[in-house]
Specification:
heterodimer; A: 190 residues; alpha+beta; Methane Monooxygenase Hydroxylase, Chain G, domain 1; Alpha-Beta Plaits; 2 domains; two-stranded antiparallel ribbon; 7 helices; 59% helix; 15% strand; globular; B: 213 residues; 4-stranded antiparallel β-sheet; 4 strands; 51% helix; disordered N terminus
Chain lengths: 190, 213
């Protein structure tokens, strides 16, 4: 992949993380997470502008208008998804209590969001998400880790989980129990 | 209950009765529609793009109905303020579906003008891939929910193709058949696990029932 494609991919991955975090911020009525969605939006806006400028430069250099046009259109759609995620997080930032139906709907949907704390002695502690293969073992995809007062947003396979961390994850409802048991140490990795 | 005609193609479809049900469906759709949009680009599939258009029209219908229901249920200023937030969530979910629709519109450009899209999407953190179910796989004749495909492998089945027919966002009760082509989303590692089950290389794990269950 060239630089332009790398940036496009970064916008795409960020747009997905933003939607997950936005729904998480609603479920937990959490202004920290909502604030992160706002910060990511600023980052994406800059990246989108760069992608669009680079695509135009490329078209001027190689004359391939269609390819650059597709790039510009795609990154704009991705940016629209990020704006929508910000619109969701914005509801949390307002000083109005959330309508109780919002939480119920998020909990009832096909893809649920869940959270829990990693206990001492859990199979997840002191290992990276790649080592424990948490996503493929439990179906749960970690979108944020709260460590003391700080958050790690969008952790990847190299991120080490520590005992005491609070994980926020999304996935299928039937993966929740095993995920929670893994965190508490009640269940061991197969 | 008779629903108001909207003058759109999907107006005769059943709309859930409560704000809660509508919002749940909108949240679900906002997620699956984006996966389908990417999948339609990866597999150059007009059929999947058509489903994205269908879901996007459905979201318009749902947004219209949730607005009416929300307005009817406001009694006080506090109600109205809370419902305004709820409607903002619904509008944002609908905006995501519009973006998904715009993404599939890129299909009309020749695939040689967008050769990099599948490559980029295949490098994403969570990838979209396809696999076929072998005759000898023990996933055959079992439902997605019964096996817990996503909780076992981390791979979400976003569509499946059976013969010439597509089934989108299959639900838990959908039984798999030999020869089905599954479009799945997840990590490389999860894909390898699922592939080994789908090919019949490995048997789907059985877990002992907890005592007293």
């Amino acid at each position: 992949m060239d630089d332009l494609e790398m940036m496009l991919l970064e916008v795409k991955d960020t747009s997905e993380l933003m939607v997950d975090l936005a729904y998480s911020s609603l479920l937990y009525d959490n202004k920290d997470i909502a604030g992160e969605v706002f910060a990511m939006k600023e980052y994406v806006d800059e990246l989108t502008a760069t992608v669009q400028q680079e695509a135009i430069k490329k078209a001027l250099a190689d004359g391939d208008v269609s390819k650059s046009f597709v790039t510009i259109r795609l990154v704009e759609s991705l940016e629209n998804i990020c704006s929508a995620a910000k619109g969701i997080a914005d509801v949390v930032m307002k000083d109005v209590p959330l309508h109780p139906v919002i939480k119920i709907s998020i909990r009832e949907s096909d893809v649920i969001i869940t959270t829990g704390q990693v206990a001492e002695g859990s199979d997840l502690a002191d290992r990276t998400l790649g080592e424990t293969r948490l996503a493929s073992n439990s179906g749960m995809w970690v979108v944020a880790i709260k460590r003391d007062r700080k958050y790690i947003y969008g952790p990847d396979e190299r991120t080490t989980v520590l005992a005491g961390d609070t994980l926020i994850a999304r996935g299928p409802s039937d993966g929740e129990e095993y995920f929670r048991d893994l965190m508490s140490g009640k269940a061991k990795l197969a | 209950m008779v629903e108001t005609s909207l003058g759109v193609d999907d107006s005769k479809e059943k709309v859930p009765r409560t704000v809660r049900e509508i919002l749940t469906e909108m949240k679900d759709t906002s997620e699956v529609i984006v996966d389908l949009a990417y999948a339609s680009l990866v597999f150059d599939s007009e059929d999947m793009a058509e489903e994205v258009h269908h879901l996007e029209r459905r979201m318009d219908t749902l947004l219209y109905h949730i607005r009416i229901k929300a307005m009817l249920s406001a009694r006080t200023r506090r109600d109205a303020e809370q419902l305004a937030g709820l409607l903002q969530v619904a509008s944002s979910a609908e905006a995501i579906s519009n973006a998904a629709k715009d993404i599939v519109l890129l299909l009309k450009y020749d695939s040689d003008k967008r050769p990099f899209l599948p490559i980029v999407l295949k490098e994403a953190e969570e990838k979209i891939k396809s696999l076929s179910l072998a005759d000898k796989s023990d996933m055959v004749n079992r439902s997605i929910g019964e096996m817990g495909v996503e909780s076992e492998t981390g791979m979400r089945v976003i569509a499946l193709k059976r013969g010439k027919r597509w089934l989108y966002d299959p639900d838990e009760t959908t039984k798999l058949k030999a020869g089905d082509m599954l479009i799945v989303r997840g990590t490389d590692n999860g894909f390898e696990v699922l592939r080994s089950f789908a090919s019949g290389e490995r048997r789907w794990p059985q877990y002992p029932q907890p005592e007293g269950a």
